[in-house]
């Protein structure tokens, strides 16, 4: 395959997944700008990279999706479930096309036709007249922030004054741009982007943090930050910066915000006199007199003083606007008089009425804010401490309540509104980011007034990022360094794994060699030296094995991430209201284990949705909340990964299960009598049992749970089910963390060696002949007050009888666990324990019952590993 | 080659793209106080601009462009 295409395929899948997850998140919270930006960017990147290949229909379909998303992003088209459905459908289709590309390096033949149809549907929304009633030219991509950025004063007075004079309208945009560190690799050239930005008045450029020493610099990593004043509209700027919009913080400010005097305030009676005089002239409308007063005073005082700066602004104002905008003039005159610029009394917001003048916080309020922030910061600390999963949920709720109360107390509506989303984000992904961002901006709803005596630093100094809420965009962006990830073909890892396996076997050969050296050649010293070497190689091999295993470990989120979509689709189809709660996504397991888990889990989730959780009406009638909860929890227990799928639905009726099993002849009437409820419920794992009367297209064909069980058992795990009628069902799956290396016990039977997986072995005992009793046709013995049935391995394997059998007065019995029952297996003797790689039977041996596979022993013998489940 | 060096003088010609960044970086590591001459350039990639900003050098003949003027604002050769 063309290497470029080979790279494109996994990348495309990642992007599709990102977009898909984003869409689901958007459906819950349509207002989240950062999510919509992510989705848009993923789809945009996909469109761009697909253009490199001969996949026209794919590119055009993705393009249509991008356009639709673009409109959603600008708020032109409100997002609804229909649009999400269509977009997800289209992404699914693209996913199938990618699969086709991988296998055949070409799109399916019907791609063109399917694409045309889909594109028509997607474009139909675009064609609809704007329902939001917004004029496209004025629709901002992000909410309009009118707060003055704290870096505005750092522009030299002369630059601000030039901008002030050049302005064609009363308002302007003050925006900062911090290109992504990796932006060069994507072909971005921020300087070129700025050069073509609309209406630039003036700008500042500098490093975000001081440059590292020159020698240690990475010339291909972008460390710059730009601060720009532009005389343009929000829409135009949004359009220009649309592909990096999340790296941009745009504020719409008034031209009067530029007129901020800088310098050290001077003192003296002359300023008070000027104030009185200037106000007189202003009241009298005498512009010439005012101008004269200003220039006179300017010649008298130090040009670097605050008052001189304010006077120059008065001059600039007079020359541009004359005596208009009197409020601004009065403010500047007061600045000359007092040495402090009073806050702007009115904030003539052109676009919104939200820009009410903010009262400056009183001291009491400030103290309240400080306390609140401390409390909030503590909450984050609490969440950062690792917790028992059983406690985590309660703790999160407690924290959420505290934060909500804090937000209410401070009147922080932004936090109150965003909090539930941030909490959900944390619960589902463990990502503290959104919560932390909220806490950090707690109570910051008002513009801050910069201290008047701040002196503008020179442009050579680094430009630190603004700490205002508007900059929080950065925190959702990808400021943090990308993890260094290597994409490796799984077959390469598998071949390393096989080599490690061979090494383990070869290593076992050394201990045979040591024994031979001692027994055959009589050299104890050599034997000991070989053993020493063996110990060293053993240690390295183990390290190697652990290392390779770690590479193959993946978080279960790989499997879980498809569930939000699945649950959404199914619950919509069934008309049920379901909340999906996922916990422990970070739990890791071997890739093969996870793959073997994927299908059973889907069955389990579907079962819960279809049979478990009731319709809203049924739930209301049963006195439950309308919305059902489906919970998927993963955790690690020793060498096992445990996955629990639980719902708060109607549970399973043991009597019905029993009746059905009886009817189908799965159990005998006597067995039904003896069964307790727990056992009866677990009958659902038997083939052919489904209690739901009608067959739905989701589940209920009576194949669900037995498929689950056989898949889990095949992967070396076990599955069990608990259910309370009317209260819900819990299915627990336990799987080994890794399937690669199996610990086995070897046993001898009629001169042959067999292996038994250690997981099945309960204990080994020697039982006297007279203690073995016959109950009907079955041999049994009593082990610590429990009757254990006996099976003879030789008989089960149909190995020839040997004369010595009859003479033994003691039997070697290995007690093994098969399913939930214990069986004593009579063998001829116990041998050593080994770690081996069990290879499945292949070729002519494939499908041979009774054996799960073969393993190679250190002396070159092939060991057959028994499959007890099938044999006994 | 759009980069010409003569002692500590570094003249950039024509379009300086990202491809030149590593070469310029290597050159600059060997020069104490470089002097950049931009008389013959028309465009500089951000990576080149950033290297000049991070170096200890001064710049002469800055093109008439507000973005470059801002970037090299404190680097203007006397």
Automatic annotation (TrEMBL), chain A:
Sequence positions bearing Phosphohistidine: 44
GO cellular component: cytoplasm
Pfam families: CheW, H-kinase_dim, HATPase_c, Hpt
Molecular functions (GO terms): heme binding; peroxidase activity; phosphorelay sensor kinase activity
EC number: 2.7.13.3
Plant heme peroxidase family profile domain: residues covered: 182-340
Domain spans labelled CheW-like: 741-872
SUPFAM superfamilies per UniProt: ATPase domain of HSP90 chaperone/DNA topoisomerase II/histidine kinase, CheW-like, Histidine-containing phosphotransfer domain, HPT domain, Homodimeric domain of signal transducing histidine kinase
This protein's record includes keyword Kinase: yes
Protein's job: Involved in the transmission of sensory signals from the chemoreceptors to the flagellar motors. CheA is autophosphorylated; it can transfer its phosphate group to either CheB or CheY.
Superkingdom of the organism of origin: Bacteria
Domain (Histidine kinase): residue spans on this chain: 528-739
Name under which the protein is recorded: Chemotaxis protein CheA
Residues covered by region (Disordered): 340-365
Low complexity composition-biased segments: 348-365
Enzymatic reactions: ATP + protein L-histidine = ADP + protein N-phospho-L-histidine
Record's keyword terms, sorted: Kinase, Phosphoprotein, Transferase, Two-component regulatory system
Biological process per Gene Ontology, one example term: chemotaxis
Record-annotated HPt domain positions: 1-101
Automatic annotation (TrEMBL), chain B:
Source organism superkingdom: Bacteria
Protein name (database record): Uncharacterized protein
């Amino acid at each position: 395959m063309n290497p470029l295409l080979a790279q494109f395929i996994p990348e495309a899948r990642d992007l599709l997944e990102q977009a898909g997850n984003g869409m689901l998140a958007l459906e819950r919270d349509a207002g989240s700008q950062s999510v919509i930006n992510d989705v848009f960017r993923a789809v945009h990147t996909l469109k761009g990279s697909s253009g490199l290949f001969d996949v026209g229909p794919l590119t055009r379909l993705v393009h249509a999706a991008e356009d639709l998303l673009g409109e959603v992003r600008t708020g032109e088209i409100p997002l609804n479930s229909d649009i999400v459905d269509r977009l997800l459908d289209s992404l699914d289709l693209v996913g199938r096309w990618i699969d086709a590309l991988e296998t055949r390096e070409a799109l399916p033949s019907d791609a063109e036709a399917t694409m045309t149809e889909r594109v028509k549907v997607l474009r139909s929304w675009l064609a609809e007249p704007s329902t939001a009633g917004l004029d496209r030219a004025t629709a901002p991509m992000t909410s309009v922030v009118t707060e003055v950025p704290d870096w505005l004063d750092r522009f030299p007075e002369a630059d601000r004054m030039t901008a002030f004079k050049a302005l064609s309208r009363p308002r302007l945009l003050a925006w900062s741009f911090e290109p992504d560190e990796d932006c060069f690799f994507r072909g971005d050239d921020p300087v070129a982007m700025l050069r073509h930005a609309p209406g630039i008045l003036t700008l500042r450029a500098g490093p975000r943090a001081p440059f590292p020493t020159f020698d240690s610099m990475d010339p291909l990593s972008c460390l710059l930050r730009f601060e720009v004043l532009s005389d343009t509209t929000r829409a135009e700027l949004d359009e220009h910066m649309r592909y990096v919009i999340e790296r941009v913080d745009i504020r719409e400010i008034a031209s009067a915000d530029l007129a901020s005097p800088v310098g050290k305030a001077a003192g003296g009676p002359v300023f008070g006199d000027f104030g009185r005089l200037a106000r007189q002239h202003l009241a009298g409308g005498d512009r010439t007199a005012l101008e004269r007063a200003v220039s006179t005073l300017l010649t008298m005082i130090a040009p670097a003083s605050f008052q001189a700066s304010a006077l120059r602004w008065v001059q600039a104002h007079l020359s541009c606007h004359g005596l208009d905008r009197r409020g601004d003039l009065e403010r500047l005159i007061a600045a000359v008089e007092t040495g402090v610029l009073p806050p702007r009394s009115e904030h003539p917001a052109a676009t919104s009425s939200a820009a009410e003048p903010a009262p400056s916080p009183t001291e009491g309020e400030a103290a309240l804010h400080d306390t609140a922030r401390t409390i909030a910061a503590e909450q984050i600390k609490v969440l950062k401490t690792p917790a028992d999963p059983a406690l985590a949920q309660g703790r999160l709720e407690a924290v959420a309540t505290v934060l909500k109360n804090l937000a209410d107390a401070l009147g922080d509506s932004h936090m109150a509104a965003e909090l539930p989303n941030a909490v959900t984000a944390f619960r589902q992904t463990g990502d503290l980011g959104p919560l932390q961002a909220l806490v950090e901006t707690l109570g910051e709803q008002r513009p801050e007034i910069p201290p008047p005596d701040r002196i503008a630093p020179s442009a050579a100094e680094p430009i630190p990022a603004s700490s205002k809420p508007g900059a929080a965009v950065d925190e959702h962006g990808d400021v943090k360094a990308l993890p260094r990830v290597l994409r490796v073909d799984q077959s390469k890892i598998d071949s390393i794994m096989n080599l490690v396996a061979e090494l383990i076997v070869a290593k076992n050969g050394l201990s045979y060699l040591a024994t031979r050296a001692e027994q055959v050649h009589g050299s104890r010293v050599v034997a000991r030296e070989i053993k020493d070497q063996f110990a060293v190689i053993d240690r390295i091999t183990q390290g190697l094995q652990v290392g390779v295993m770690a590479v193959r470990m993946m978080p279960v989120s790989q499997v879980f991430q498809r569930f939000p979509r699945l649950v959404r689709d199914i619950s919509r189809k069934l008309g049920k209201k379901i909340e999906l709660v996922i916990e422990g996504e970070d739990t890791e397991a071997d890739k093969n284990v996870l793959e073997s888990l994927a299908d059973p889990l889907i069955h389990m989730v579907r079962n819960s949705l279809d049979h478990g959780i009731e319709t809203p009406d049924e739930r209301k009638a049963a006195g439950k909340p309308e919305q059902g909860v489906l919970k998927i929890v993963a955790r690690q227990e020793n060498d096992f990964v445990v996955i629990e799928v639980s719902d708060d639905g109607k549970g399973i009726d043991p009597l019905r299960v029993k009746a059905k099993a009886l009817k189908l002849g799965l159990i005998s009437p006597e067995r039904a009598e003896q069964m307790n409820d727990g056992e009866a419920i677990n009958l659902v794992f038997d083939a052919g049992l489904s209690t739901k009367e009608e067959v739905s297209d989701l589940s209920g064909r009576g194949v669900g749970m037995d498929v689950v069980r056989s898949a889990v058992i095949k992967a070396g795990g076990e599955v069990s089910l608990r259910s309370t009628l009317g209260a819900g069902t819990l299915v627990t799956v336990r799987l080994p963390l890794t399937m690669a290396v199996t610990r086995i016990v070897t046993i001898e039977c009629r001169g042959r060696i067999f292996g038994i997986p250690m997981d099945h072995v309960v204990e080994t005992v020697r039982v006297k002949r007279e203690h073995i009793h016959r109950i009907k046709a079955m041999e049994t013995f009593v082990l610590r007050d429990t009757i254990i049935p006996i099976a003879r391995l030789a008989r089960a394997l149909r190995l020839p009888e040997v004369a010595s059998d009859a003479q033994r007065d003691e039997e070697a019995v290995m007690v093994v666990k098969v399913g939930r029952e214990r069986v004593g297996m009579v063998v001829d003797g116990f041998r050593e324990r080994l770690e081996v790689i069990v290879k499945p039977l292949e070729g002519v041996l494939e499908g041979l019952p009774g054996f799960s596979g073969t393993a190679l022993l250190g002396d070159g013998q092939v060991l057959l590993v028994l499959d007890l489940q099938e044999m006994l | 080659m759009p980069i010409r060096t003569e002692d500590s003088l570094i003249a950039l010609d024509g379009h300086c793209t990202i491809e030149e960044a590593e070469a310029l970086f290597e050159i600059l590591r060997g020069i104490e106080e470089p002097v950049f001459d931009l008389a013959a350039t028309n465009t500089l990639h951000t990576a080149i601009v950033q290297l000049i900003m991070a170096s200890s050098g001064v710049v002469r003949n800055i093109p008439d462009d507000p973005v470059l003027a801002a970037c090299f604002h404190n680097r203007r050769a006397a």
